[in-house]
Amino acid sequence: MAAGPFVGRRAQLRDDLERRILAAAEETFAMNGFGGSSVAVIAAAAGISKQNLLYYYPNKIDLYRTVLDDVLEDWLGCMIDFAATSSRPEEAISRYIEAKLEFSRRRPQGSRVFALEIIGGARNYGNELKSKIVPALRADIATLERLLGSRDDDRINAEHLFFIIWASTQSYADFSAQMELILDRKPLAAQDFEAARSTLTRLVLNSLGLPSPMTGARVETRSAPEGD
């Protein structure tokens, strides 16, 4: 027998409440880390009782891992897309950088939860990180090597290239407070993310000897005039 409107409405309310709990947990964990956060504080932020929250998530570590599962699935999305691409290398790399920056712009709290877990030694989520990130990175490296074809032996190390892209793009979430102080605006504006995208893309494409996807010409950095 098909579910009636009441059952469907109840399921929708449950889904909405779980999303609210996870949003409150993501913000709390981003501000205080795992150790500095409590179920009571998260429940209050979600506008429910602690007992109600524990009905959905039996303990703090279960809630924390659920948040990180959701963040990591989002974070891995562009890695999965890159591994499956058949575009020209300059286009694929440009889109990858843009997607990583968009994650930082769209989900800064989630990025900070992720960063705090890594900084803390990945004690609560290390096995999950290793099992999910390592295969995705290996697939991306294989795709990059396929796109670039045969190259000189002194080519840039692919693993460390991806590490640098991750660090550069995630800094616009994890260290945005520093940038906001220096740029004297809060939050970071759309033009800041566009400047970051353009700058990082130029640096990476230049380092690989690739052309700009917009012009078809190799991106050149401007050298300072002699005598400066």
Task: Describe the overall structure.
With 228 residues, the protein is mostly helical. The chain folds into two domains: 1-58, Arc Repressor Mutant, subunit A; 67-208, Tetracycline Repressor, domain 2 (Orthogonal Bundle). The protein has ten helices and no strands. The N and C termini lie far apart (80 Å). Mean pLDDT is 90; it is low at 216-228.
> Percent of residues in helical segments?
over 70%
What is the CA–CA distance across the termini?
Answer: 80 Å
Main sheet specs: none
The CATH C-level name of the largest domain is Mainly Alpha
Order of helices and strands: HHHHHHHHHH
The tally of strands reads 0
What is the 3D shape?
Answer: globular
Say what the CATH topology of the largest domain is.
Tetracycline Repressor, domain 2
Instruction: Provide the structure class.
Output: mainly alpha
Q: Determine the strand fraction and express it as a percent band.
A: under 5%
Name the average pLDDT.
90
Number of domains: 2
Second rung of CATH, namely the architecture of the largest domain? Orthogonal Bundle
Query: In angstroms, what is the radius of gyration?
Result: 21 Å
Ranges where pLDDT stays below 50 over 5 or more residues in a row are 216-228
CATH superfamily of the largest domain: Tetracycline Repressor, domain 2
In DSSP terms, counting alpha (H) and pi (I) runs of 4 or more, how many helices?
10
List keywords for this structure.
Arc Repressor Mutant, subunit A, mainly alpha, 228 residues, 72% helix, disordered C terminus, Tetracycline Repressor, domain 2, globular, single chain
